Amino acid sequence: VETSDEGLVDGADLARPVDALFVNAPLRDYSVRGRVNDFTLPVLGLGYLATYAASQGFNVGVVDAEARGLGVRETVDLVNRVAPRWVGLNLLAPTYALSAGIAEGVSERARVMVGGHHANAMPAEILADPRFAGISALVVGEGETRVAALLADAESRRSLPRVMWRDPVTGEIAFGHAANAAPHLAPDIDALPFLDRAYLSDDPHVTGTGDVEANMVASRGCPYDCAFCGAAVSSNPGTTIRARQPFNVITEMEALASSHGVNRFRFVDDLFLGSGRLIRSYMSAFSAADIGGRFRWHATGRINVLDRAADSVLDSLRRNGCDEVALGIESGSARLLKHMDKRIDPEMTTRTVERLVRAGINVKGYFILGYPTETLAELDETVAHVRELWRRTENTPGRFRASVFEFRPYPGTPEWTRLMATGKFTASQLLDYAAIDLTDGGLDEAMRERDEFNFSVNIQFGEADVATVRERLVDLAREQHDRRNAA
Ligand code: B12
Ligand code: SF4
Q1: What is the average per-residue pLDDT within 92-99?
Q2: Which of 25, 167, 181, 325 sees the fewest Cβ atoms within 10 Å?
Q3: Are 399 and 422 in contact (CB under 8 A)?
Q4: CA-closest candidate to residue 165, choices 124, 126, 137
């Protein structure tokens, strides 16, 4: 261990033997092209695993190679210097190859476990990948209790549900078996320890406006089934959808305020404001605790849910401190929205965005360009939809901003199944995500803040070719950037 390693490993005591390092792969190999932005969200999932393992007595740490701008080689060298007993990797589809490179480089003395969305979606393929040949456990779903059990005894995998590995003798995939799986697959989220922020590289953090902001997760799972989404209910059959009790969430908010001076929270749940019932229950608890008098927060929401909510409900969000809602708007084409199973249409979106901004709540809208089956006319409808929303919210108390993405297929999602069923693509083509530089080597200020999202499988999925889709994306991103600067 080198002295400088202390600054790259979060939460572990490097003076003692380390039981596990949980590694978040970088989005690109930064030894090839350096990082040009400093925006990242904390790796909450790995933080939860580390927090729970520590509560069971283990000395664990997190290496967030994305946040630290580390390349694959640097990450491997760091991990091997620390020489933990176990290395845990969270697998996401676009960073899979980088995680595999890290797994390959890790010393054979360390056992390797993997988990995360990509592990859930393609377990058999991962266990067949020679780069993951020696792994001790692939954990499907929420990992807290099973990770701690593995750290205590690697052989416990035989009695853990939805844990998989390759039998070294037969080469067959082996599974753990448990009589009572529920406590492992859906741990009681009100009983889990609060996420120990020592495991996160930059959370809480000071925002551009001088607030101290912390990221939170108040629920797990999403009941909707949007065709492109890794969180879609049909992509996560083993997940039990549940929300933490409002009191439990409020206690964590207050604890962060007193320990770190946090005054602003970001709920990164798949869907925080997920139903009218949930919104009412959270807002009445927030009112009773005077959350709005003390804090500001922003969260994910859903257009159809907010469309059904009365104006008084939107007002209660604002009064209770909500200053921005992130909404999946996706497209300006009603046909395409139906094809995505979004349960919304462009008129509903316009109505909801206008009501929110009039109530003083900002809206961040996410859009997808280049969706499978999208026609050129539909692509233009989406561009026009964005411009229309900008226009309608120019002089309102709340603001609207657009965040636009190129479509990328994720395994396990309904759209992935549909694409594979066309017979036109192979899984490896659809997984061949390549980083694309829209920042002009970091020089283009307007494109810099979203550089981490600029990667593509370079396949034309709709009527517009990839270059046209990207042109529209850059136009909208520039315009959004200029609008924000003008504001
Ligand atoms: C916050 C968030 C981020 C943050 C932090 C990401 C991170 N690495 O944790 C940021 C903004 C950085 C991010 C980036 C990206 N994200 Co993201 N993100 C989320 C979001 C909204 C919440 C994640 C979260 O904290 N959940 C709460 C915790 C408790 O759950 P969790 O993270 O799943 O972790 C649990 C289990 O999965 C498991 N587990 C996780 N890791 C491991 C590792 C081991 C060893 C084990 C045993 C278990 C295990 O145990 C954890 C605790 O229960 C999810 C949506 C979702 N459904 O999770 C998308 C999501 C995970 N992201 C996704 C994607 C695609 C990305 C990006 C590739 C986006 C992009 N650039 O285009 C990058 C990848 C960055 C990277 N290298 O990690 C997809 C994944 C789809 C897929 N099949 O791969 C999701 C599902 C979004 C979606 N709806 O499609 N993301
Ligand atoms: S896009 Fe949002 S609402 Fe749809 S499945 Fe994903 S998390 Fe749920």
Answers
A1: 94
A2: 167
A3: no
A4: 137
Nearest atom in ligand 1 to 146's CA: 47
Q: Is the CB of 116 under 6 A from ligand 1?
A: yes
- How far away, in angstroms, is 456 Cα from ligand 2 center? 21
User: Ligand 2 centroid vs 215 CA: distance in angstroms?
Assistant: 19
Considering every ligand atom shown, identify the ligand nearest to the alpha carbon of residue 366 and give its number.
2
Helix residue spans in 83-122 (DSSP H) = 96-105, 117-121
What would the pLDDT profile of 260-282 be if each residue is shown by its tens digit? 999 999 999 878 888 999 999 99
> Is any ligand 1 atom within 6 A of the Cβ of residue 44?
yes
Question: What's the whole-model pTM score?
Answer: 0.95
For helices 346-358 and 376-392, what crossing angle results, to 10°? 20
270 lines ligand 2 (CB under 6 A): yes
Ligand 2: atom nearest CA of 274 is 3
Q: Is residue 302 in contact with ligand 2, taking CB distance under 6 Å?
A: yes
3 state SS of 329: strand
Amino acid letter, 250: I
Phi-psi region of 290 (alpha: psi -120 to 50; beta: other; left: phi over 0): left
Q: Would you state the pLDDT for residue 445?
A: 67
Q: Which residues pair with 138 in a beta bridge?
A: 114, 164
Residue whose tokens read 């708007």:
329
Q: Is the CB of 29 under 6 A from ligand 1?
A: no
In order of 122, 305, 340, the CA distances from 236 in angstroms are 12, 22, 17
